[in-house]
Amino acid sequence: HWFGRIDIMAVAGSVAKGLIPLAALEAGPFAAVVDAVFENLLSGKQSEGGEALFQDKRVGSADKAALKVGYGSLVSVVLAAAKANSDSDSFGGTLEENGLSSAQITAVTEKYTASREKLRLLLRKTAINLPHITDIDWKLDYFLESNQLDKVGEPNYTLQMTTEDAEGKQGQVQVSCSLAQMQDLVSKLKDATKRLETLSDN
Asked: Which of 22, 39, 55, 188 has its CB surrounded by the most CB atoms within 10 Å?
């Protein structure tokens, strides 16, 4: 049986921590950020939203650094959720884990639910044509018998990846690897994650 399902939202985990200062905002500035995120994502102007946000009267005297971090993090998390086609409960769980209140979660998830299909359509239109991974399952086996004596008793991992192309069609890719190969893969993925964190911090 497959086990150890990896939550695709975990990919955005480090970025999601930027939601913490967003959760501390008062109702006015928070609503301004949420509106700016969805308006700009749906219009394809997410990179411009940060500056336009500061012109919103609801922002008032809110800390600009917190607004900028919160805006960027919410954009990333919303896109990650839309790419994974996460439902409102899964998406809301990520928001809750990063300190948002029930009222704040409701405000964001309502907009996300209303916008999800349009966001996924926009993502398919703008994404590169290579399939991307939407889910990974894994299982661990041990060789109890083998024609090669050096493999007996060794762990063997099987990874099954679900992919989705630009047209929304799903596929399956299965890979088998040894413990050493799995450790190497995990190390390289951690390195890639650190590089992404560095870019997001800048």
From this structure: 22
